[in-house]
Amino acid sequence: MAFHNAQQLENLNHKISELDGNINVSFEFFPPATAAMEETLWNSVNRLKVLNPSFVSVTYGANSGTRDRTHSIIKEIKQRTGLVAAPHLTCVDADRSQLKAIAQDYWENGIRNIVALRGDLPESIDKPEMYAEHLVALLKEVADFDISVAAYPEVHPEAKSAQADLLALKRKMDAGANRAITQFFFDVESYLRFRDRCAAIGIEQNIVPGILPVSNYRTLCKFAGFTNVKIPGWLHRQFEGLDEDPTTRNLVGASIAIDQVKVLSQEGVKDFHFYTLNRSELTYAICHTLGVRPTSMLE
Known about the structure:
Blueprint: H1 6-19, E1 24-29, H2 35-49, E2 56-58, H3 64-81, E3 85-90, H4 96-108, E4 113-117, H5 132-142, E5 146-151, H6 162-174, E6 179-184, H7 188-200, E7 206-211, H8 217-227, H9 233-239, H10 246-266, E8 271-275, H11 281-289, H12 295-298
Parallel strand pairs: 1-2, 1-8, 2-3, 3-4, 4-5, 5-6, 6-7, 7-8
Helix pairs in contact: 4-5, 5-6, 10-11
C-alpha cells in the first residue's frame, strides 16, 4: 500500500489508535502430539495469557488419544494460568452417555465454557446420529455451560445451501448456544453480509469473527480448500514471491489481520477469535498493534 501524502498515513494511524485496545480477544490452540510441540504450546499460552483473553480454546480430534490430550491440556491451562479454558467437544464417535460423562467431568473440574461442534466425519460414517444443535441441548441438560458454536460466513462445505446452513446455525442458537465463532475468512464483506443475514432471521447472539494470521500461504491454501474459504486475488498477490521469505510473509500476514480487525471494529465488532496454530508471535504482535496489551503496560 502506498500513501500519497502524510495526511493519508496519519488518518490510518488515527483509525488504528481509535481502537486503543477497546476490543476483546480469545485464542485457539490445538493439543500437542510431541514433547517439542508441547513446549511450543506452553510458550505460546504463557506469551498470550498476559493479554487477558476472554477465553482460550483447545481443539478436539476424532481419535481418543487426541481427545485425552485436549482434556488434559484444558485442565492444565486453567490450573496453571487461571485463564477461562474452553475445550472443543464433538459428537462424532461418541454416544450421549459418553458425552454427558465428559461434560460432567469438565463441570466438576471447574470448566464452564465449551465449544460445541459436530466434528469432522470419519470416512466410515455417512451421516452422524447427532449434530451440533443436539450437542448444545445435551450440554445444557448437564449444566449451564457457556457454549460457543461454529458459523460459516462463506457456507459450510457440506451444506445444501447458504439458507440451509444459516437455519442450522439458528437451531444451534435456539438450543442454547451463547455465541458463534466463524470460520476464518479474508473477505470482510462476506462476514458483514452474513451478520446481517443472521440478524434478519432472529439470531441475537454475538457472531465472533475468526481471524487467522497467515504465516504460510501454501498451508493457508490447503486449509481453505477443505473449509470452503475463498482466497481473494489480492491476498494471492500479497504473498507472491515470498515462498522463501518467512520474515516478509509474517509482516504481510500481520498487516492483513490488523486491517481486518480495524475495519470490523469500525462496523461495531468488538470480539475477535484468533486461530494461533500454537504460535504466539504473529498474534501477539497484532494484538499489541491494536492496543491489546498487558495490564501493566496500560497503567
